[in-house]
Design brief:
The structure holds two protein chains of two kinds. Chain A starts with 9 loop residues before the first helix and ends in a 5-residue tail after the last helix. The longest helix of chain A is centred in the first third of the chain and has 34 residues. Chain A has a single domain, classed as MetI-like fold. Chain A contains 13 helices and no strands. By secondary structure, chain B is α/β, with parallel strands linked by helices. Chain B folds into two domains: about 130 residues, 3-Layer(aba) Sandwich (D-Maltodextrin-Binding Protein, domain 2), CATH 3.40.190; about 100 residues, Periplasmic binding protein-like II (D-Maltodextrin-Binding Protein, domain 2), CATH 3.40.190.10. The longest helix of chain B has 16 residues. Classes of the chains: A mainly alpha, B alpha/beta. At the A-B interface, helix 1 and helix 12 of A face helix 1, helix 3 and strand 6 of B.
């Protein structure tokens, strides 16, 4: 298959190269400053291992909750017409554009121990979400869910609904249609959405430090550890950044190849 | 290489050149100052600008260790005022000889309702209370650590915050039962929270150094002199600092 039918204008190529350079230079800078010889020691330090473990656990939980709650939301947004739908979509996508620190503040006003809902958790059950690992998961879910919702909603809009209609006319219940027809049809996008949400949760910083605080082993995830390390040792911060970078890049490259339709 | 390619490659550097302000006749200086200096320096800065018409000061308030790291990474800073000598020494290579200009000590901040009924320093060892302090490399964290050590207290914080203002914010929001902050932050928080005084004998004192960077214009030196002058020191005392 030959895609290059029209030659690309030179200006376009030049700007594209500039764009790539802009994105690539910081990564090269990081690699050049990486203390390769002391890297194994830095990465296997108890503090780094603890942050990595916490990051993996909380980001997986966040991806799980984002999927559990995000898929139904995406389905409603894609399939149901109701007043205020555009407004609701705006609300759903807000965490994408909101500075994460602001997201953290809004979480505090809702789930903090004097927050809208949080005060009842605290007064009735003694549950305090800020400064807890559950708070980290909440912050990560908050910022990651929109990635899942837009990916899945887009897929639901683009699939051929005749299969679902056929199943309905053959007497399948709505739930059967959802699990046997709809979800299998969008499985590639669903996986892409989950992975994107997970990657976003893994990199989450602003909402976490604002809402959940920063304590090793409880709320100090990898990005927070990078931030804290920066105050003491630049080398350690760079080593930790490299881990995040490697994980994210691996995920995104494999995702691009397998799930976003570039199979040919 | 054709012209479009050249333009595209050169443009960013041309733009970067426009933002370079490192000349001696500069009328705007950038002052990086510890978060605990926010109110005092904002006031001193306003007075300084008034007395030196045509000049301007850009303030950059954050945890001292963050500021030191920024300077080491090449941030265009003219004056650095840190909350501890340790923090300032991290950027020593790029700074002129520092001078001490203020002394501070610690206090315990609690929400108005004092939900954990904290009365004394030793109440902080209760494991069921939520206490937050600054992260250890930040001067207020360094000082809090010294405080616990001096009084042989085993305190487990719920969170290590990036600077003293972040600690204060969380106590004001009633998310924490207690926070270790500077005495000078009492003024900044006003009526929103209460303070448990730490007796001088148990307290720790921190000294604040100030220095110009090696590349700073003359105006930076003038600002440092102003902070050290009687007028500057009067403002510092107004915000609760002692003179060294």
């Amino acid at each position: 298959m030959n895609k290059a039918t029209t030659p690309a204008p030179r200006l376009l190529i030049a700007l594209a190269i500039l764009a790539l350079t802009f994105l690539l230079l910081p990564l090269i800078g990081l690699l050049l400053e990486t203390p390769w010889s002391s890297l194994p020691a830095l990465l296997t330090s108890p503090a780094a291992a603890e942050a990595l473990r916490l990051s993996i656990v909380t980001s997986l939980f966040a991806a799980f909750f984002a999927t559990l709650l995000g898929v139904p939301l995406a389905w409603i947004l894609a399939r149901k017409d109701f007043p205020g739908r555009r407004f609701i979509r705006g609300i759903v996508l807000l965490p994408l554009v909101l500075p994460p620190v602001v997201g953290g503040v809004t979480l505090l006003t809702a789930f903090g121990r004097r927050g809208l809902i949080g005060q009842y958790f605290y007064d009735w059950f003694g549950v305090q979400l800020p400064f807890s690992t559950a708070g980290v998961v909440m912050a990560a879910t908050f910022v990651a869910m929109p990635f899942l919702v837009i990916t899945v909603e887009g897929a639901l809009r683009s699939i051929d609904t005749r299969y679902e209609q056929a199943a309905r006319t053959l007497g399948a219940r709505p739930r059967t249609v959802l699990f046997r027809i709809t979800l299998p049809l969008i499985s590639a996008s669903l996986v892409a959405g989950i992975v994107l949400a997970w990657a976003r949760a893994l990199g989450e910083f602003g909402a976490t430090i604002t809402f959940a605080g920063n304590f090793p082993g409880v709320t100090q995830t990898l990005p927070l550890a990078v931030y804290s390390a920066l105050e003491v040792s630049r080398e350690e911060a760079i080593a930790l950044s490299l881990v995040l970078l490697a994980v994210s890049l691996t995920v995104l490259v494999s995702l691009r190849g397998r799930f976003l339709g570039s199979r040919s | 290489m054709n012209r479009a390619v050249l333009t595209a490659l050169v443009l960013p550097f041309a733009l970067a050149a426009c933002t370079n302000n490192n000349d001696d006749a500069a009328t705007t200086i950038t002052v990086s100052a510890a978060a605990s200096l926010t109110d005092a320096f904002t006031e001193i800065g306003a007075e300084f600008i008034q007395q030196n018409p045509g000049t301007d000061i850009r303030f950059n308030f954050a945890g001292s260790s963050t500021l030191a790291e920024q300077i080491n990474s090449g941030a265009p800073v003219d004056v650095f005022a840190a909350a501890s000598t340790t923090a300032m020494n991290r950027a020593a290579d790029l700074l002129e000889e520092p001078e001490l200009f203020a002394v501070n000590s610690l206090t315990i901040a609690v929400p108005r309702s004092n939900p954990a009924s904290i009365e004394t320093l030793s109440d902080l060892t209760n494991p069921s209370i939520t206490i937050i302090v600054c992260n250890a490399p930040v001067p207020c964290g360094e000082a809090a650590h010294a405080l616990f050590e001096k009084n042989e207290l085993r305190v487990t914080p719920a969170s290590l915050e990036r600077d003293v203002r972040a600690v204060l914010t969380k106590v004001v929001a009633d998310e924490a039962d207690a926070g270790i902050i500077y005495r000078t932050d009492v003024g900044a928080a006003g009526q929103q929270i209460d303070f448990i005084d730490i007796p001088d004998a148990d307290n720790v004192r921190t000294t604040y150094p100030i220095a110009t960077t090696t590349q700073a214009p003359e105006l930076a030196g003038a600002f440092v002199d102003y902070v050290l002058s009687d007028t500057g020191q009067a403002v510092m005392r107004k915000w609760g600092f002692e003179s060294p």
